[in-house]
Specification:
single chain, alpha/beta, TIM Barrel, 40% helix
Length: 219
Amino acid sequence: MISALRFQPIFSVRQLNILGYEVLSQLKSSVDNEIYFSALDIPAHITLLDKQLTILNQLDDNEKYYINLPVSMLCNVTAIHFILSSLNKNIIIELQDPANLDKLNGFERMALMSNLHLIHSNGFEVWIDDLTPALLRVLSSFIFAFDGVKVDKNFFWQQLENPSLLRSFVYCSSLLTNNILIEGIETIEHYNIAIECGATHLQGYLWPEHHYTLPLVVG
């Protein structure tokens, strides 16, 4: 089902260079991404992560790679054991579906917090993907020091005509972490607005992504 890996560059405003890549799985053209990934259970997510890590290990470089993992996986003991035994230190975890944080029951919430602290104690960074104002309020109730956040690209595009609101949101996000990445950077205008509003990292089609085509389609 998975035909390739996509590597989207992450640009550092401080260093003015590419410091890593978000790793995304590319499906066969006939498959709907959202439906496919939302239907994966924990064992399937572990299999997918294993395939991604196998490829990254073959690259044998020192790049930072941002890997997307769902909340359900980060609440699961079996998945956490696999993650801690398999990741190299150049791997950064992105919590890909923060909208599901507010759906956790008390037990799941405690399990997630315990697992995130365990991941941190083993030297791995944890970032939040697709941050919006509504999610910022949810995150404020979690006692965990996230290493970075990614501002949702659609929210960024909606605020292009009102950068003061974007600047205020970036400031509020900076109370959680010093690393604020804005997604959806496609033009020089986007680049300039994001930097003026306080972003420390940028991501988007302004920087061409790379592809790694799999020798065989992974089911």
